[in-house]
Amino acid sequence: MNRTPSKNQIISFLNDYNMTPIRRLGQNFLIDEKIAKLIVDSLHLSKYTKICEIGPGFGALTAHLQQFDSKLTLIEIDAKMCSFLNDHFGKDENIKILHEDALRCDFSDYDIIVSNLPYYITTALIEKVYRQGDKLSQALFMIQKDVYGRLAAKIGEEGYGPLAIMLGYLTDISSLLAVKPSSFYPEPPVDSSVINLKFKQEINRRFAMNLDNLVRALFRNRRKTIANNLTAYMHNREKAIKLLQDIDIPLSMRPEQISIDQYVTLLNYLQNDK
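RE: above sequence
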């Protein structure tokens, strides 16, 4: 039995609830049962798992997630979509439906987050998730295919910056599968990727957030050298230069030329120097 709504069912739902897909909200609804099942099968679920699904739409993933009897929270910004979700999933005592903007929500209590992310909030939401997700073990996101390279960029690659550094430090990131526009209704203009973020459990969260603040500060003027940026951060050029020399980071390097391990070493020295 297919749990993912078909294209014809989506059209019927849109008519029933007097809706038109809103492009700015990224309302391209998944209609591919195989893709939906692959996504849910990639999650490590039990009845004790607290899951958050952001932007569930017409329940393409929700109907599959529902079978695990996990505690499931649905966050949906569209009021009419919330009416649909309440009508179809509201009687399930394991499901809570929130009419909220995900960027204003608190994600600190969830084990797993899954979402088909609209392009306009991809970066902001992923940043919010890793900053708040103290208990997170996994996050699965559907994103535009070309965005994955920026999220998973390594040193020396285009897109390497604060977000890639923090995801590299906090998670094991991988691309699970590519998704064609024909898997959605209406069809988006580009291919999508499903990415899997497995959060490293041994990470010290306070240190990680300090690292996040440091990296963002040092990338604020990415055209300047690390010596200049660290001087601005420390308000002391002499100390900044000595610190970089102590940990063998050339003064002329720029922020995108410094590895994750080097940033971690830099933060350790800064914290030990206080």
